[in-house]
C-alpha cells in the first residue's frame, strides 16, 4: 500500500503532519547542541578544595605581618607566603604533605621564601581543629611548630594526641599545658579574626607577595584551595630570584 499523496485532503494532512514532526525534531536537536556547547565551554573547572575565581573577594589592600609562632625561612627572603589552614581539613593536609615539602626544599632552605602559617580552624566542620591549632601554636612558642605541624597532618587528629606529640617533641610539659588554656587559644582567635577581616571563608587560602625589610607583605597573589605545585611555582617566580639581596 502506497502512502497518501497531495492528490487529496488526506495526502495534504499527512504531509503537514510530517512537516510538523520534522520541525520539532530540528528544534530539539538544535537545543541539545546549544546546551552541550554552552555547558562544556562555560562550566568552571574545579579542583578539590578550591572556589570559583568569580567569587573571590579582592586582595587585601593593607600589608600583613609575617610575625608569629609558625614561621619558616629567613627574614631577608625576597618573597613571603602566608597560609591560612586547618589541621582537620583534608585539602590542607594535601598541601601540607605534597606542596609544602617541595616549597621548603626549593625556596625556604635556599633563603628565597618566608612561609607563615596562620590558624583558621573551621569549627563547624572540624570540631577538634581548634585544639589542634592551639597545640601547634604552643609547640611553636617552644620552637617546634613545624615538627608539630607534620605530626598533626600525619594522621587523623584524635583526643590525647597533643600530649603524645608534646612528649615526642620533648616540649616542657607544664609550659605546654598552661599555653593550651590561655596563650594558644588567644593566638588562634587572633588569626581567625584576621582571616574574617580579609574575607577568607575556606581553607587552605594562601597569599603571596614581596617581603619588605620591615617584615611586612602586601599580598599580590591569592591561591585558594589545594592547588598543584606548579601554580605556586608560577606565582613565586614573580618575586624570587637566584640570589638573595642583603638588607
Strand count, sense and closure of the main sheet? 5 strands, mixed
CATH superfamily of the largest domain: Glutaredoxin
The general outline is globular
Q: How far is the N terminus from the C terminus?
A: 98 Å
Order of helices and strands: HEEEHEHHHHHEEEH
Low-confidence stretches: 1-5, 28-53, 242-247
How many strands? Answer: 7
Q: Give me the side-by-side strand order of the main sheet.
A: 2-4-3-5-7
* Total of helices: 8
Helix content: 40-55%
Per DSSP, what share of the residues sits in E-state strands of 2 or more residues? Answer: 5-15%
CATH class of the largest domain: Alpha Beta
- CATH topology value of the largest domain: Glutaredoxin
Average of pLDDT: 83
Question: Gist?
Answer:
This protein is an alpha+beta fold.
Word description of this protein:
- This protein is α+β, with helices and mostly antiparallel strands and 247 residues long.
- It has helices at residues 9-42, 90-108, 129-140, 145-154, 161-168, 173-181, 183-197, 229-236, and strands spanning 64-65, 71-72, 79-85, 113-119, 205-210, 216-217, 221-224.
- It has a five-stranded mixed beta sheet with strand order 2-4-3-5-7, with helices on both faces.
- β3 (79-85), α2 and β4 form a beta-alpha-beta unit.
- The model is unreliable at 1-5, 28-53 and 242-247 (pLDDT under 50).
Amino acid at each position: 500500500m502506497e502512502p497518501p499523496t497531495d492528490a487529496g485532503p488526506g495526502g495534504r494532512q499527512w504531509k503537514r503532519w510530517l512537516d510538523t514532526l520534522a520541525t520539532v525534531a530540528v528544534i530539539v536537536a538544535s537545543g541539545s547542541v546549544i546546551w552541550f556547547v554552552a555547558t562544556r565551554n562555560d562550566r568552571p573547572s574545579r579542583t578539590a578544595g578550591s572556589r570559583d575565581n568569580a567569587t573571590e573577594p579582592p586582595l587585601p589592600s593593607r600589608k600583613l605581618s609575617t610575625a608569629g609562632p609558625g614561621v619558616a625561612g629567613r627574614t631577608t627572603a625576597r618573597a613571603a607566603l602566608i597560609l591560612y589552614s586547618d589541621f582537620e581539613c583534608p585539602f590542607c593536609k594535601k598541601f601540607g604533605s605534597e606542596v609544602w615539602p617541595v616549597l621548603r626544599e626549593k625556596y625556604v632552605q635556599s633563603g628565597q621564601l618566608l612561609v607563615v602559617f596562620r590558624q583558621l580552624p573551621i569549627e563547624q566542620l572540624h570540631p577538634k581543629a581548634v585544639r589542634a591549632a592551639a597545640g601547634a601554636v604552643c609547640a611553636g612558642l617552644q620552637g617546634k611548630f613545624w615538627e608539630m605541624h607534620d605530626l598533626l597532618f600525619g594522621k587523623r587528629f584524635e583526643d590525647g594526641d597533643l600530649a603524645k606529640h608534646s612528649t615526642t617533641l620533648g616540649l616542657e610539659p607544664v609550659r605546654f599545658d598552661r599555653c593550651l588554656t590561655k596563650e594558644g587559644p588567644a593566638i588562634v582567635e587572633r588569626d581567625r579574626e584576621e582571616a574574617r577581616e580579609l574575607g577568607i571563608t575556606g581553607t587552605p587560602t594562601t597569599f603571596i607577595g614581596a617581603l619588605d625589610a620591615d617584615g611586612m607583605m602586601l599580598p599580590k597573589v591569592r591561591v585558594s584551595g589545594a592547588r598543584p605545585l606548579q601554580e605556586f611555582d608560577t606565582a613565586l617566580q614573580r618575586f624570587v630570584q637566584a640570589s638573595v639581596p642583603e638588607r
